[in-house]
Amino acid sequence: MNEILEIIEQDPKIDPAEIARLTGQSETEVRSSIKELEDSGIIRKYKAVIDWDKVGEEYLYAIIELKISLGDRSGYDEIARRISNFNEVRSVRLISGDHDLSLTVRGHSMKDVAFFVAEKISTLEQVQSTVTHFVLKTYKEDGVTLFEKDKSKRLAITP
Fold it and tell me: Where are the alpha helices (DSSP H) in 73-119?
């Protein structure tokens, strides 16, 4: 199953017949494995990586580090679950180091992100402090490089 997962992670649109060819399994086995992986929640979602700069959509991303003060009844999972419900939040991770949680958030402007931090995150009882880093440029997203394809720098040979 790991082989199927690796293939799907690289190309979610790949045809099961092609996966069968690559793995040496039958197409029926592959389809059954994929359904089982989806039903069990191992495959959570099929996703496209979009270069929003090329679309012309003005999105701003920020990485926000949070220092959390855990209460008697709450843990990291509880606060992470609460924070993950905000539409602006793209990812929530428990991290090591000086901070406890790392959020990736998306807004249309620095003002949007600042408002989100000030009004929705810093007001949470468990949040002791925040540090916000604005993403200036993304070079690679979910394993996909966002560089333009290099055009050949060689000159054409003409007679």
Answer: 76-84, 110-116
Q: Does residue 77 sit in the same domain as residue 34? A: no
31 backbone dihedrals φ, ψ, rounded to 5°: -60, -40
- What pLDDT is attached to residue 29? 93
Residues 36-58 as b/e (b if ≥16 CB within 10 A, e otherwise) read ebeeeeebeeeeeeeeeeeeeee
**43, 50 contact by CB (below 8 A):** no
Task: Evaluate whether residue 49 is within a structural domain.
Answer: no
Query: CA geometry: angle at 94 spanning 91 and 100, to 5°?
Result: 115
Residue 111: half-sphere exposure toward Cβ, Cα within 13 Å: 0
CA 122 to chain centre: 23
Euclidean distance between CA atoms 100 and 93, whole angstroms: 8
**From CA 30, how far away is CA 147, in angstroms rounded?**
33
* Residue-wise pLDDT tens digits, 14-47: 999 999 999 999 999 999 999 999 999 999 888 8
Domain that holds residue 131: 55-137
Q: How confident is the model at residue 146 (pLDDT cuts 50, 70, 90)?
A: confident
pLDDT greater than 90 at residue 96: yes
